[in-house]
Amino acid sequence: MREATLDSEPRTLMFTTLVLADGTPLLVTSDSGERTRLASGEATLLRAGETVGIESFGPPETYFVISLALGGKGQQGRAAFPTTPIHASEPFTMSHADHDLDLIRDVLAADEETSLPAGAAPVVLLVTAGELRIAGEGDDAETSLVAGEAASFSGPLELAGDGAGASFVSAYLGAELPIVATPVPAVSGGAPRGATSVATPAPSPERAATPEPATEPAATPAQAPAADTDDDGLSDAREAELGTDPERRDTDDDGIDDGGEIDLGSDPLNLDTDGDLLYDRGEVVYNVDVLEPDTDGDGLPDGEEVYIYDTNPALADTDGDGTDDFAEVNAPSEDEEEEPAPDEPPADESDTDGDGLTDEQEDRFGTDPNDLDSDGDTVNDSNEVAAGTNPNDPEDFP
C-alpha cells in the first residue's frame, strides 16, 4: 500500500504492476503523456520499465499495488513504492511460457459463496472491505482475512463473505497459453522440404465453361466505412462537427469514450456534464444520472455525497432511518443549543463571478468569489474543482 497525494512524484517500475484504487479516484499518467482515471474498485496494468505518476483526485488517498517480481529482486522493486508491503508471497517457479494474468474483483454478501480454481502459481487474495472466509486444500485449511490483509494460497479455493460481507481482489495467473503455429508459405518450384505436394487438378475436358451473359451488371463495390482514427465510435467527420479530437478516444478525459458520451447523452467536451463535482465516468460507477446534479433529490449534489459526506448519491436516505441525507448532514451537533434558531434567510446561491461555484462554495474552497479563474491558469474555478485540480495553484490544472 502507498499513499497518493496531489504532488506524487513519478516513479519507474522494475516489474509488471497492478494499481488498484480504493477510495478517492486516482489519475495515472505515463511518461508518454497517456492518462488513465481509476475510480474506486478500478485497476490498471503497468509494465516494467514504465515511468508513471499517480495522483489523487482529492485528499491524500491510499491505493493498492500488486507487483510480479523476479526471484530475489523483490526488495529492489520496493524502491518504486517505498512502503512496508502488506504481503510478500514465497518464491515460486514458472515455466518459460506465456500465461494469462488476471485481477479478479468480487463483492460477497454475508454467507454468499464463490470459488477460485487452482492457477499456474499461488493465488494472492487481498481483502479491501469486510471479512472473507477462505477454505482450501492441504496446508490451506480454513482461515479468514479482514480488510487490509492479504495472503497467498495454492490449489482451488472456496470463498464466503463473513459478518456483513466482504470485498476482495485476487491476482491470478492462468494456465499456459498454447503456441499458435504460423502457416508455411508456398515455395516456388516445389513444396518445402518435408511437406506434401498437392497436385493442381486439371480442368475437366467433358464440358467447356459457359460464359456469363454480356448484359450481366457488374457488382457494386461496398462503400468503405467512414474513417475513425481514434476508434471511439465517432467518425472523424462527426468529431469535426462536435469539436472533439479525432485522435483522442476520450477528448475531455472523463473516463468515457467520445462515442459513449453521445450514446449516454453527456457532453464529450465537459468531464462533469451536470456540474455536480462527480466526473461523468464516476456517475456511471455510482449508477447515478450524468445529466442530473442531485440524482436522488435529497438536496445534496452527487459529488458532495461521494467525496464529502460519504453518503449514497442514488439513495435519498442512505442509512434507511427515515431521515434524508440532507437533514442528517445538516443536523446540529449534540454540542449545539437545542433552542430553535430564529428565522434565517434562505442559503445564498449567488455566483458573483459566474464561474459555476456559488460564493458560499468559493469560500469553502478558498477561491476568489470575484474572479472566475482565481489562479489565472485559464481554467475556471468550477472546472478545476470538478477535475480535482487545485483552483488556487496556477501550475495545477486539468
Q: Can you offer a commentary on this structure?
A:
- This protein has helices at residues 74-77, 236-242, 258-264, 280-285, 302-309, 325-329, 359-365, 381-387; strands at 2-4, 11-12, 16-21, 26-30, 35-38, 43-46, 51-56, 61-68, 99-108, 113-116, 123-135, 143-146, 150-153, 157-176.
- By secondary structure, it is of the alpha+beta class.
- Among the domains are: 2-77, Jelly Rolls; 99-176, Jelly Rolls, CATH 2.60.120.
- Strands 9, 10, 11, 12, 13 and 14 form a six-stranded antiparallel β-sheet that branches. The protein has a four-stranded antiparallel β-sheet with strand order 1-8-3-6, with no helix packed on it. A four-stranded antiparallel β-sheet has the order 2-7-4-5, with no helix packed on it.
- A hairpin with a 7-residue loop joins β11 (123-135) and β12.
- The model is unreliable at 73-79 and 186-209 (pLDDT under 50).
* CATH class label of the domain at 99-176: Mainly Beta
- Main beta sheet, described? 6 strands, antiparallel
Q: Structural class given helices, strands, pairing?
A: alpha+beta
Number of helices: 8
Examine the coordinates and then state which fold CATH places here, giving the name of the CATH topology of the domain at 99-176. Jelly Rolls
Could you tell me the strand content as a percent range? 15-25%
Fourth CATH level, the homologous superfamily of the domain at 99-176: Jelly Rolls
**What is the averaged pLDDT score?**
78
- The number of E-state strands comes to 14
Assign a percent range to the helix content: 10-25%
Task: Pick out the low-confidence regions.
Answer: 73-79, 186-209
Q: Give the name of the CATH architecture of the domain at 99-176.
A: Sandwich
* Shape field: globular
The whole-angstrom Rg is 29 Å
